[in-house]
Write a structure and sequence with these properties.
Layout: H1 3-23, H2 83-86, H3 91-94, H4 144-147
The chain binds heme C (2 copies).
Amino acid sequence: MNKKTMAALAVLWLWGGAMSAAFGEGLVSERGNLALDEEAPAAEAKQYAKDGDVIPRDYVQQPPLIPHKTEGYIISTKSNKCLSCHSWANAKASLATKISQTHFEDRDKNVLANVSARRYFCTQCHVPQVNAPPLVENTFKPITAISGQ
Ligand code: HEC
Ligand code: HEC
């Protein structure tokens, strides 16, 4: 170990000590106050909301949250379950919103005739919601372009 590495380690060690002194008191890890070699009880399985109403967006560029279950909805190179409802061809029949124009643009802004590869794996950006209470208080407010206030 050379001098530089040792100095870096010493700084890290001091910083770690300072951080645990500042934040350590009263904090409980997500797995409880358990020793490292103790196994935590399994976390309660979260419930995905059944088909619900559209969830309001918080900012204009936000990928809308998914208001329905997606369990078993497979997205592979052969098929895309999401598009069986959300594609332009199928949206009307399934009462789903069709994917917007941005989903047809490649990274060079060429507009394609079909869904762009960068928008093919829907759950990269769109996520379903569970009944999980927020871990910390959040006072975030939507921008005025959405809330009007
Ligand atoms: C069986 C049909 C069906 C399938 C399959 C389906 N959806 Fe939906 N989806 C709907 C309907 C109906 C709605 C509610 C109406 C709407 O689109 O706003 C909806 C809503 C949404 C919304 C909210 C739209 C908005 O404007 O807020 C998103 C995002 C979404 N789905 C994404 C997905 C993704 C990603 C998948 C695949 C993992 C998927 N959906 C699979 C029918 C479907
Ligand atoms: C790289 C991120 C990304 C991926 C991947 C993606 N989306 Fe989106 N999606 C967005 C964003 C951002 C918006 C909101 C702005 C917009 O329309 O571009 C959106 C909007 C939507 C909307 C609402 C359209 C509207 O007119 O209000 C639907 C429905 C949707 N996406 C479905 C899908 C489906 C289905 C897929 C998979 C085939 C998918 N998206 C893949 C980012 C993504």
